[in-house]
Amino acid sequence: MSQDEATLAALDRYIDEHLRRVTWRPKRLTAIPSVSSKGEHMEEAARYVAELLDGAGFATQILPSGGFPVVYAESGERDRRTLLCYNHYDVQPEEPLDLWDSPPFAAVVREGRIYGRGISDDKGQVISRIAAMRAVRAVTGGYPARVKFAVEGEEEIGSPHLEPFVEHNADLLKNDACVWEFGGVDSEGRPTLYLGLRGLLYVELRVRTMSRDAHSGSAHNLPNAAWRLLRALATIKDENERILIPGFYDAAKAPGEVEMRLFEAMPSMEAFTREHYGVREFVGGHTGLEFEKAVYYPTANIAGIGAGWQGPGAKTVIPAEASAKMDFRLVPDQNPNVIFDQLRAHLDAQGFSDVELTKIGAERPGTTPADDPFVQLTARVAGEVYQKPVVIDPMVGGTGPVWAFRHFLKTPVVTLGAGDPLSNAHSPNESMALDQFLLATKQMARLLVAYGQGEG
Amino acid sequence: MSQDEATLAALDRYIDEHLRRVTWRPKRLTAIPSVSSKGEHMEEAARYVAELLDGAGFATQILPSGGFPVVYAESGERDRRTLLCYNHYDVQPEEPLDLWDSPPFAAVVREGRIYGRGISDDKGQVISRIAAMRAVRAVTGGYPARVKFAVEGEEEIGSPHLEPFVEHNADLLKNDACVWEFGGVDSEGRPTLYLGLRGLLYVELRVRTMSRDAHSGSAHNLPNAAWRLLRALATIKDENERILIPGFYDAAKAPGEVEMRLFEAMPSMEAFTREHYGVREFVGGHTGLEFEKAVYYPTANIAGIGAGWQGPGAKTVIPAEASAKMDFRLVPDQNPNVIFDQLRAHLDAQGFSDVELTKIGAERPGTTPADDPFVQLTARVAGEVYQKPVVIDPMVGGTGPVWAFRHFLKTPVVTLGAGDPLSNAHSPNESMALDQFLLATKQMARLLVAYGQGEG
After folding, report:
1. Which CATH number goes with the domain that contains B91?
2. Which residues 271-300 of chain B have a CB within 8 Å of chain A?
3. d(C-alpha B279, C-alpha A221), whole Å
């Protein structure tokens, strides 16, 4: 056994021995209901993450961002190459509560999985990475590269302050390679490396047709806000899923040759997805390669809609007000701020200037080239840890502030984490498999060691 | 002063003296939150109404209906002509609570009006009529006609059991003239007599596209229930308010010559309505005579719609389920049960057989001819009491189980009551003016006396 092999074996052993016992504390982090859209317990969650990083030998600061603070931490020698971990301590709302099998903020373990809001997205990943750091330090006596953490508190509300934060703190955050907040395996346990994330425009539409609700006996004369909103929404997307906002697709790139080759090489998640969500037919009848490459079709999703009486039985009312939340997932090189203006202009042009439009979140899409050496290194380490073929996916359907890191810091960004297709991120019964937690921690630890040795 | 005039003067005096003090008990009746769509406190409200009728010398029974019971009461000699009062003790839901200026079940008096859920629709009317009965008995020593009350508990949920109840109890309910549960004045204080009520079909539409909610990052493949429901709803009515269900208009009658003359003679409520609801433009641009006769246009109203995240801020979710409540107000001779079947067939034909459709309420429209002697008597008495021109309105936009009374009992039905355009029935801050309460009570008392003397 070479010295390298001995180190890696020792790392694995350390993680196996420590992880199942005391090293990680997902229970306590999950117990802090840091739902950023509600805005409570945010400082508490930040402080606890900082405490964990302190404990792993990092110099930690809680930095103001203009919104919820960013936990920043660094360790390792200054003259070494720098690896940055981007994570977040905020979580999605826990509702609907009645669909949870255990309390969302309790971190209950059942049959090899730990359940709780944010356990997969992203608190379990935070804990896993800190555990990996502790393992590397314990086994090698220090950090073989300079390591930074940036753990923000607004990822689930669209990171409204992260872009300026990264721009203004470019020197502090400067790095040579970045590990993104999430990652994991597909339904066959194959580690998946995502090369990009889509952008996001999140808006609220609200319309008021009267100063008060009215008895529906007057519906032949009094205007109904729900109907009005529905008419407005119907102008945004046609029945063939084509988004009708003029200019919407102008900056949208189709997948290139490299991406198409990667899509073709990817094992299909179609059957799993169909089963997991109980879906007979996908949007647009997507199947086969179309199912995979559809991530390059930007979306116009209704995340919520509400008006009038939603209680039991009958109430005969004309709602005076109606509102909807929509998110648009954007592909390179769409700009959410441009699209927000296009949407406003479209509603006006269609005669819906009475529909109020509020921007709740805006993030740009971003991708890393498949041939970047750090991508290749991450893929190689994943193959060694998981002992399975590695899937390289050109773009994940979700969103994160990756554009800021790519644009201001110019560093390659890879994904790595403990997620799997049963994680139910953003949904009731969010969970993380303990086995995956172990594997992701090992991958992070090995990646740091290899990177410190000059690979990637 | 003739004996008749002396009786009427004594009635007025009695009502003036007693009503403002102890005779009526709206506070206690309003305090019973008998919201039929929630189904609580229903027996309690029925018992209290029965107690009030007992106290006015009626033989009272609480009869099973298959749903919430009907309070039935009768008094007066059997060989006399019979006048039936139809009322209800159930109320609409009190929500949205935050728009009430005082607690909905407290019956608070402010500036000459009493506020509370159900005070106008229909508890104040129940109290007013019983007060009128007590006045007639006190002044004349008995009832000059046979009087019956039928006070049901399911009016606000579409009277699902009243049609069979009336059919099966036709002998018990037999009468020669019927006073409907509501009535009142227009914005100028002119008493308004409605000759008919529209029918109603109340349905719930529900669609499920997945077995669970999903992260909206998969919206390019996973089907959104809110979009699916919107597409289905859009097939029901076009942008010009034309209802697109095949056969929907087949049985719908246009207003005839008599009705058109009445519409032309009616003082316009257009300006008042525009102001009261803060509406710039009415549905279809209705104005002038069109605003009045539009009550003959059956409606397809969205009473409520809900899916996904409706809380503060952002949640990026694809809703797996979406639902809407709709009410269709129907004109003579549309049949809600036929239209329910037509709607189901329409959704199927449009490719929406996955949209579940549940019938929550169904009532047929019904009208009484303008030349009926009891209509003429009621109008004459209204003119005497209110000292204003009487408005005869061919049809009110609302609904009630009038068809059952017209069809099974063949009796003319008139409206009479303490409502006014500020009553906000079915809305927050529902109220009744104390002055109107007094006038409606006097009208009821005088109508009974005149009817007992053989008029009408």
Report:
1. 3.40.630.10
2. 273, 277-279, 281-283, 286, 291, 294-295, 297-299
3. 10
Q: Which of B37, B309, B431 to mutate to test the interface with A (most CBs of A within 10 A)?
A: B309
Per-residue pLDDT tens for B2-37? 778 899 999 999 999 888 765 456 789 999 999 998
Confidence band, pLDDT 50/70/90 cuts, at residue B342: very high
- The answer to whether residue A276 is domain-embedded is no
**B273 and B383 inside one domain:** no
Q: Do B30 and B111 lie in a common domain?
A: yes
Under an 8 A CB cutoff, do A221 and B286 touch? yes
Spatial neighbors of A141 by CB under 8 A, at least 6 apart, are none
Number of domains in chain B: 3
Residue-wise pLDDT tens digits, B212-252: 999 999 999 999 999 999 999 999 999 999 999 999 999 99
CB A217 within 8 A of CB B198: yes
The answer to whether the CB of A246 falls within 8 A of the CB of A346 is yes
**Inter-chain residue contact B215 with A398, CB threshold 8 Å:** yes
Same domain, residue pair B263 and B347: no
What is the model's pLDDT at position B23?
44
State yes or no: pLDDT of A22 exceeds 90: no
Strand partners, B307: A305, B322
For residue A178, report the phi and psi dihedrals to the nearest 5 degrees: -125, 130
ipTM at complex level: 0.88
b/e per residue B206-233 (b: at least 16 CB within 10 A): bbbbbebbbbbbbbbbbbbbbbbbbbbb
pLDDT at residue B21, rounded to an integer: 65
Greater confidence (B416 vs B424) lies with: B416
Question: Which chain A positions have a beta carbon within 8 Å of B216's beta carbon?
Answer: 299, 301, 303, 327, 329, 426
Give the domain extent around B389.
Answer: 3-195+368-452
Compute the average pLDDT of residues B38-63.
Answer: 97
**Cα A34 to Cα A43, A130, A158, A433, distances in angstroms:** 9, 19, 15, 22
Confidence of residue B315 (pLDDT cuts 50, 70, 90): confident
* Of A328, A363, A398, the domain-final residue: A363
Question: Percent of chain B having pLDDT more than 70?
Answer: 99
Given B363, B384, B413, which residue is the final one in a domain? B363
Judgement on whether residues A358 and A439 belong to the same structural domain of the protein: no
- Tokens 């439009």 found at: A357
Q: Is the peptide bond before A341 cis (omega within 30 degrees of 0)?
A: no
Distance CA A136, CA A446 (A): 8
Q: Are residues A236 and A155 in the same domain?
A: no
Residue A218: CATH number of its domain: 3.30.70.360
Tens digit of each residue's pLDDT (9 = 90 or more) over B354-378: 999 999 999 999 999 999 999 999 9
- Confirm or reject contact between A181 and chain B (CB < 8 A): no
Residue B305 has pLDDT above 70, yes or no: yes
Nearest by Cα to A35 from A44, A24, A48: A44
Q: Are A100 and A93 in contact (CB under 8 A)?
A: no
Q: Do B316 and A399 touch (CB under 8 A)?
A: yes
Same domain, residue pair B356 and B428: no
Residues B399 and B340 reside in one and the same domain: no
With an 8 Å Cβ cutoff, are A216 and B325 in contact?
no
CB-based contact, A249 to chain B, within 8 Å: no
Look-up of token digits 């929550």 = B360
Specify whether the CB–CB gap between B194 and B179 falls below 8 A.
Answer: no
Q: Find which of A289, A302, A321, A352 to mutate to test the B interface (most B CBs within 10 Å of its CB).
A: A302
Residue B153 phi, psi (nearest 5): -120, 20
Mean pLDDT of chain B: 95
Q: Is residue A261 in some structural domain? A: no
| Subunit contact B329:A220, Cβ cutoff 8 A | yes
User: Which residues in chain B are contacts of A294 at CB distance < 8 A?
Assistant: 220-221
Within this chain, do residues B270 and B381 fall inside the same structural domain, yes or no? no
